[in-house]
Write a structure and sequence with these properties.
233 residues, alpha/beta, Rossmann fold, 2 domains, 5-stranded parallel beta sheet, 8 helices, 7 strands, 53% helix
């Protein structure tokens, strides 16, 4: 069965870094809505071009459009063995649609991981976060380097990472994401990871929790099949 993971977490929680690491180590696709939109736009898919036109006008991409784009991507052959999904779903409507997509794929349970970090620590991280002036790569929040490890460019603070803006961004995240978390919270494959630890400890905890959730999901998925077979005997 495939390994299908949703990574959730507030800005500064480190979910993007952990999603990339987990996908590389497990040989899975890391898929973010931004990546999907860029790829679909490059392929000149009508639904993606419509989404780009909305973004160019400063409008939000509606649920129906985003669901169509994600559905197309997740039903492709290279996603069959699994994926790590970042920044989707963002609404309950999208979460329900993803459940329907998973039924179509019929390839393993959906595991939801919430990378949880206290607000005070998120503010500290974001207020001191640095990015590369040249390539835009985020610097290691636990590191002390002054140059980008990817291209050697200068590391600078983002202009929107002052404390007032950070607090507002966190409020928006909590307000918009809470319904999605509540939609998933009671599922047996929902896990919370302590993101306030050092990255390697977060990685270890995340690997353990995801493997446990996957085992639970497989047992739940195969139980009805076993019951049906036994009932036919």
């Amino acid at each position: 069965m495939g390994l299908n993971v949703i990574m959730m977490g507030a800005p500064g929680a480190g979910k993007g870094t952990q999603a990339g690491r987990f996908a590389r180590e497990r040989g899975l696709l890391k898929i973010s809505t931004g990546d999907i939109l860029r790829g679909a736009t490059k392929e000149q898919l009508p639904v993606a071009l419509a989404a780009k036109a909305k973004m160019d006008r400063g409008e939000l991409v509606d649920d129906e459009t985003m669901i169509a784009i994600v559905r197309d991507r997740l039903l492709r052959p290279d996603a069959h063995s699994g994926f790590v999904l970042d920044r989707f779903p963002r609404t309950v409507v999208q979460a329900r649609a993803l459940d329907r997509i998973m039924d179509e794929r019929d390839n393993g349970p959906l595991i939801i991981v919430d990378v949880l970090v206290p607000e005070q620590e998120l503010v500290r991280r974001l207020a001191t976060r640095r990015i590369c002036r040249s390539c835009g790569q985020n610097a290691d929040p636990f590191g002390s380097q002054t140059l980008c490890g990817k291209c050697g460019g200068e590391l600078v603070q983002r202009t929107d990472d002052n404390q007032e803006v950070v607090l507002e961004r966190l409020k928006i995240y909590q307000r918009s994401t809470r319904p999605v978390l509540e939609y998933y919270r009671e599922r047996p494959t929902f896990r919370v990871v302590n993101g306030a630890q050092a990255p390697d400890r977060v990685a270890h905890e995340m690997d353990t929790l995801i493997d446990d959730a996957a085992a639970v999901g497989v047992r739940l998925k195969t139980a009805p099949e076993r019951s049906a077979r036994e009932g036919a005997l």
